Amino acid sequence: MDKYNLLEQYENEIFEKFNAILDATTNLDLDINQFKQERLPVMVRILQVFYEEADFLKLILGPNGDPYFHEKMRQFFVRYFNAYLGNRTDKSKWRFPIELTLAYNSNAILGVITYWLQHDTQQSPEEIATMLIETILKGTFEASGLRSIFEKDSE
Description:
By secondary structure, the chain is mostly helical. It is built from eight helices and no strands.
């Protein structure tokens, strides 16, 4: 095997780990109140794989990494959201196209994880998972505490 074949094999092994986590935990019957309770442990398990494979993933997702792997990882997070949303929602009632919402969330998650890897995983997988789930559910301003700062400034 050449180095490209070896790289592809290792990437596939990592995705097998990610997909096994998602496949074992998909539950389409959750309501929004159960989302955090069910999705937080899933996100922690996903981040533990990133943590365990940090040296490789830091390189492959870094500036000189593999754009194909990056896109494949982003699509994994789209699948993560679709596992929850599925066909449960009336897409005509969405304020924005669901594809844009999925693109926003998948890119945001991957951006945070890439930053986390590039900064030597200073926070635990649990801390990052909590931040990501809170931000997904509440939005950036609410989850980070910025809403109260902006509300005070506008008074």
